[in-house]
Amino acid sequence: MNFAPFLFLASLEGLVQAAVLCLTAVGLSLVFGVMRVVNVAHGEFFMLGAVLAWWLASLTPGHAAFGFALALVIAPALVGAVALAADRLILKRLDYRPEATIVATIGLLYVIQQTALLTFGPDARPVEAPFYFRVQFPWFGYSGHKLLVVAAAAAVLLAAWYVIAKTRIGLVMRATRFDRDTARAFGINVHRVYAAVFAVGAMFAAVGAVLVVPVRQAHYLMGLDPLLLSFIVVIIGGLGSIRGTVVAAILIGFSDGLISVFFSPTLAKMASTLLVALVLVFKPQGLFAVQSR
Questions:
Q1: Nearest Cα to 113, choosing from 40, 199, 53?
Q2: What is the C-alpha to C-alpha distance for residues 276 and 236, in angstroms, rounded to an integer?
Q3: Which of 5, 32, 36, 172 has the fewest CB atoms within 10 Å around its CB?
Q4: 253 part of a folded domain
């Protein structure tokens, strides 16, 4: 039996998993890197993006592509608004203290999850893909939408890199990240930066959810796996390291896709957890840890 088609299919599935994981984990890493806040509710922002995508798509008449495009714009904006309100009403009042914010985001997790359950119900909600064309490879045809997920995630990540590395907005974020007091001395409104970063981190998760929801369906309990995998990626890549997060997300996404196709998803999660344990033992700061200044 020819092994190459199965390996190629597993690689494609791993690439899709890695693309969505990159978006979700970069949002989590950005929040921790700038704010030093461990956002336990990050997976619920992912779930909320998916549920809102279903709701917006169901309200949009006409071709499914119109509803999907509308959801891709509006759902992340709504999730960002929820995150912004959470920062203003909760995290800012706690002065972003690490222990307090962990407890607060756990509470936020349950509030968002139960609100979604009461509002949208317990059933999984399918979202129609914007198109159904298949890209023909030598052995089989593959979903064009899944390849769109990869391309869109790459475009969003490149845009984020450009903003962080090449613009004044990114300079302000980096200054706040490395020395909050000095940033204040130079007239930077640190609380405004924190609010924006928390909202943008949530929007990254929501974009990933909207892109992948035609494949996975929307459900009020779907935030757990993205949260777990994002924490795994951030720990392996190094807390606060965007580059390390992307590299680790690609590594975990590919391994998860390959192991899931050839063995089982449960074994894939076990392998990811084992990798975290090895990193914590031999390099506890992560593979690409940001050095303090």
A1: 40
A2: 6
A3: 5
A4: no
Q: Shortest CA distance to 169 belongs to which of 193, 190, 153?
A: 193
> How confident is the model over 234-251, as pLDDT tens digits?
888 877 678 888 888 888
The token duo for 228 is 């777990």
Identity of the amino acid at 162: Y
Q: Express each pLDDT in 123-139 by its tens digit.
A: 888 888 888 888 888 87
For the chain, the straight-line distance linking the first and the last C-alpha, in angstroms and rounded, comes to: 56
Domain count for the chain, please give it: 1
Does residue 237 lie within any of the structural domains? no
Q: Give the SS3 label for residue 142.
A: strand
Contact 44, 206 (CB under 8 A): no
Reduced to 3 states (helix: H, G, I; strand: E, B; else coil), residue 131 is coil
Q: Give the separation between CA 204 and CA 202, rounded to whole angstroms.
A: 5
In a domain, 289, yes or no: no
Q: How is 37-73 classified by DSSP, letter by letter?
A: ---TTHHHHHHHHHHHHHHHHHH--S-HHHHHHHHHH
Q: Determine, yes or no, domain membership for 30.
A: yes
Which of the 8 DSSP states describes residue 290? P
Residue 85's domain comprises 18-223
Q: Are 129 and 211 in contact (CB under 8 A)?
A: no
